[in-house]
Amino acid sequence: RGTFVTYTPTKAHNSHLIAFITGGIDAENHLLMLNGAEQEARARGYQIVFSNAKNQEEELYILENVEQNNIAGVILWANAQSTQSRQSNIDKYKKIPVPIVLMDRKISGFDCDFVTSDNYGGARALMLHLINLGHRHIIFLSHEMLEIFPVIERYRAYCEALEEAGLPTSEPW
């Protein structure tokens, strides 16, 4: 299930390398995402080249050099700080000469293909389950980066489900 997109190249590209760029692999789910991307790419005759960017500047540097490194496309799990970029940086993302697919996090102002789980639907289902069990005082726990897409969607589901049930919401903890 999901949304499937096709890419029609604007010029012939013979490379079979896909760059996977992320800000770090520090949890098991991060390794699972990298492994899944690699398996899918390999099944289609492509190879994943992994790059770790410590910050948005490194991320943009890697992206600006993909064409000279013979990269056909990019899977970008954007740095959390990249999600709220200055216009000058958004313009740099737009100038990357190969297709980019964002993973899990959107970059505000940069329109491209995007793959994520159903953060809103999952959080809403959880909230309805808790409400149906009779819970009336439910809090939203999160890390401090409230502006990234998955957190925004989960918090939106939290608020809407509680409001529909006539229950109070709270600011994220």
Structure description:
This protein is 36% helix and 14% strand. It has 173 residues and is α/β, with parallel strands linked by helices. A 5-stranded parallel beta sheet has the order 2-1-3-4-5, with helices on both faces. Helix 3 (87-94) links the parallel strand 3 and strand 4.
Topology:
Blueprint: E1 17-22, H1 28-43, E2 47-52, H2 56-64, E3 73-77, H3 87-94, E4 100-103, E5 113-115, H4 119-132, H5 149-164
Parallel strand pairs: 1-2, 1-3, 3-4, 4-5
Helix pairs in contact: 4-5
**Helical stretch tally:** 5
- Please mark out the parts with pLDDT under 50 across 5 or more consecutive residues, or reply none: none
The largest β sheet comes out as: 5 strands, parallel
For the largest beta sheet, what order do the strands appear in spatially? Answer: 2-1-3-4-5
The dominant shape is: elongated
Class based on secondary structure composition and strand pairing: alpha/beta
Order of helices and strands: EHEHEHEEHH
How many E-type strands? 5
Strand content: 5-15%
> What number is the mean pLDDT?
87
Helix content: 25-40%
Distance between the termini: 33 Å
Q: From the alpha-carbon coordinates, what is the Rg to the nearest angstrom?
A: 19 Å
